[in-house]
Write a structure and sequence with these properties.
The complex is a heterodimer.
Chain A: H1 9-19, H2 25-32, H3 36-48, E1 52-56, H4 59-64, E2 71-75, H5 77-89, H6 93-96, H7 100-104
Antiparallel strand pairs in A: 1-2
Helix pairs in contact in A: 1-3, 1-5, 2-3
Chain B: H1 3-7, H2 10-21, H3 26-49, H4 58-77, H5 83-88, H6 93-113, H7 115-121, E1 132-136, H8 139-142, E2 148-149, H9 150-159, E3 166-177, E4 185-193, H10 196-200, E5 217-221, H11 223-230, E6 240-243, E7 246-253, E8 267-271, H12 273-276, E9 284-290, H13 296-301, E10 304-309, E11 315-322, H14 323-327, H15 329-348, H16 365-395, H17 403-429, E12 440-445, E13 457-461, E14 467-472, E15 483-486
Parallel strand pairs in B: 4-8, 5-7
Antiparallel strand pairs in B: 1-9, 1-11, 2-9, 3-4, 3-9, 5-8, 6-7, 10-11, 12-13, 13-14, 14-15
Classes of the chains: A mainly alpha, B alpha+beta.
Chain lengths: ~100, ~500
């Protein structure tokens, strides 16, 4: 029987932020207002629990924009399912950080 | 260049990140540092562009970099190969022992830092003082307040020569002491007969008489009063001051801050009999007496009365309290409560630690020994913890041997010992005999209504996969106490707790 991981509000907020399109650590910090000492360990924990995955961007993109390589994060299928469960637990989560489809609309 | 600007420069930020990287496990360090340095690049440019809200100043960039330490610590702690994590993981024996040791250390520090408590742990404050008595008109509790009139002391000096080899009087007073060059301070002073130090066997190094004028009494300050009220001035000794209308020589500094005698005194004022006799006859103080040397200890330890006939035909009764016994009172209370708690322990919890199958082939003797060493080390840490905590609570604010202090010490030490021993037994029963970790994941098995047909109780499992613990709900003739069942090593792959999902707390 699969059980949903129980996330704290902060972890759920970070998950929602990544889902909304803020896909690297600095942008998550900007969107949530949380300090780096909270955001990065939380993202490591979410990654360890299989809710998000990380991937380095291509070197050519970074070279073209003359900046260092970035590490991007995105939700896994389990992460999306967990986030939906978290929306029921934390109803204001969606209002705090809008989903990508809401933003586009 | 301003130091603050230097600390907030880009090279300093890189230095912070490199320092934090030292905490990251080696196999992840390169990637971790690359990610943080890339993020720093963005943070730094965000600060420059002023377009983004949060990173407008250099201090925000520094704070961002300092957050790397928390991230690095998290990675270090959650590294499956981390020795630190293995040793201090929740529920481990070492974590329990270290926590107890820290608590014991804190209680000891509190004990040593409070003068009242420190004098309570000073088991033998008097040298060669077996036959020393304190005369009181109200037993142990009455000895905390001055109860003997000065006129009684004066008459006893001659009438009790056949009983005591020496008799001393002291009376606590509060007076302002003013010495040249210093502001002066209000001190609690023990105004005493000049034989009191000889009676208590307190030795003071003789000081050269540096004063030019006459004086009628000598003042001896405690170390604390000398430091706090007179700034530790070494030239204070030999100077003349005036206390209670008489010229006084500051004659010495005691190496100790408190005395296990009634009255919290900062200083002693020793007067000869001629000056002491100027005290009002009805004024009350404390009287100390010395028994003759032969067999004085045994006689002093006995609670004895002193009956003094009065002129009107009646008699006054006084209690003689052994000072050595009085000083040992906190220790005697602890010993008493320890014994009573051990007697009461079986009424609060079962004493057996459970049944463990004999697996001498699988469980080597060092592992079995480790379990018992852990058990006895818990006792060895808990006993001083309860002792020091009860002394801290009892004598931090109450004087030594006060009734309130004794009651507090009695209550805290008894309940402390009782619940500490109960916890030790219960904790030991809930630990894996192999890795000494606290067992987890309790599962209820069976139904209480079928108790006579099938097994009914709780099962706990070792997160390291060493075995299962079966605890019966109702002890029966065939299942009286908890039983441990070892698991085969082939189960090990299922119990790698490093990959257990977290609760997601941030």
């Amino acid at each position: 029987m699969a059980t949903e991981p129980k996330l704290s509000h902060t972890a759920a907020m970070i998950l929602q932020t990544i889902h909304s399109g803020q896909v690297y650590g600095f942008s998550v910090m900007e969107a949530t207002g949380l300090p780096s000492g909270t955001v990065y360990p939380a993202m490591r924990r979410l990654e360890r629990d299989g809710l998000i995955v990380s991937k380095w961007e291509q070197q050519s993109i970074a070279d073209a924009e003359q900046r260092p390589l970035r590490k991007y994060y995105k939700l896994t299928r389990a992460g999306v399912a967990t986030l939906q469960a978290m929306h029921e637990r934390y109803p204001l989560l969606k209002k705090m950080i809008a989903d990508p489809e809401v933003k586009n609309a | 260049m301003n130091l603050r600007l230097l600390l907030r420069s880009l090279p300093s930020s890189h230095l912070i990140l490199r320092s934090a990287a030292c905490l990251v496990p080696a196999q992840e360090r390169t990637e971790w540092l690359a990610e943080w340095q890339a993020e720093l690049w963005h943070v730094w440019h965000a600060r420059d562009s002023k377009s983004r809200g949060r990173f407008r100043g250099s201090s925000e960039v520094t704070n961002f970099c300092l957050g790397a330490f928390r991230d690095a610590c998290w990675l270090r702690w959650n590294n499956p190969q981390s020795r630190c994590r293995r040793v201090f993981r929740p529920g481990s024996a070492s974590r329990c022992a270290v926590s107890l040791a820290i608590l014991t250390g804190i209680s000891l520090l509190v004990c040593l830092s409070l003068p009242g408590v420190r004098s309570a742990v000073d088991l033998w404050p008097y040298h060669d003082a077996d036959g020393l008595l304190m005369i009181s008109s109200g037993g142990y509790s009455g000895a905390e307040l001055p109860s003997i009139q000065f006129q009684d002391y004066q008459s006893w000096k001659t009438s009790t020569r056949h009983l005591f080899t020496g008799l001393a009087f002291y009376q606590p007073i509060r007076k302002r002491v003013h010495v040249t060059r210093h502001r002066g301070a209000e001190l609690s002073i023990g105004r005493a007969s000049n034989n009191i130090f000889r009676l208590l066997h307190w030795e003071m190094a003789p000081i050269p008489d540096q004063s030019s004028g006459d004086y009628s009494a000598k003042l001896f300050l405690s170390q604390r009063a000398w430091r706090e009220s007179f700034g530790g001035d070494p030239h204070l000794i030999g100077s003349i001051t005036e206390i209670a209308g008489q010229r006084v020589l500051v004659a010495g500094i005691f190496s100790r801050d408190s005395w296990p005698l009634p009255g919290q005194l900062d200083a002693w004022l020793l007067e000869d009999e001629r000056h002491l006799s100027l005290l009002p006859l009805e004024s009350k103080g404390y009287v100390l007496a010395q028994l003759p040397v032969s067999g004085s200890k045994a006689r002093a330890d006995e609670w004895r009365d002193l009956t003094v006939p009065r002129e009107d035909g009646f008699a006054d009764h006084f209690d003689c309290i052994s000072l050595a016994q009085r000083a040992r009172q906190p220790f005697s209370t602890l010993l008493f409560t320890l014994i009573v708690a051990l007697i009461a322990l079986p009424a609060t919890t079962a004493l057996p630690l459970g049944e463990y199958p004999r697996h001498s082939g699988r469980l080597p003797w060092p592992a079995r020994m480790r379990r018992w060493i852990f058990f006895w080390s818990k006792i060895a840490l808990v006993v001083p913890l309860v002792c020091f905590t009860s002394l801290d609570a009892a004598y931090a604010t109450h004087p030594l041997n006060s009734t309130t202090g004794q009651c507090i010490q009695l209550a805290i030490s008894f309940f402390g010992f009782l619940f500490a021993f109960r916890w030790i037994l219960e904790d030991q029963r809930r630990r894996c005999p192999v890795c000494l970790r606290v067992l987890s994941h309790p599962v209820r098995v069976g139904l209480a209504s079928r108790n006579f047909l099938a097994w009914n109780g709780t099962e706990l499992i070792c997160a390291g996969g060493h075995g299962l613990l079966h605890i019966p709900e109702l002890p029966t003739s065939w299942f009286g106490t908890q039983r441990w069942q070892y698991l085969d090593p082939s189960w090990g792959s299922l119990f790698n707790d490093a990959y257990m999902p977290s609760a997601g707390f941030v």
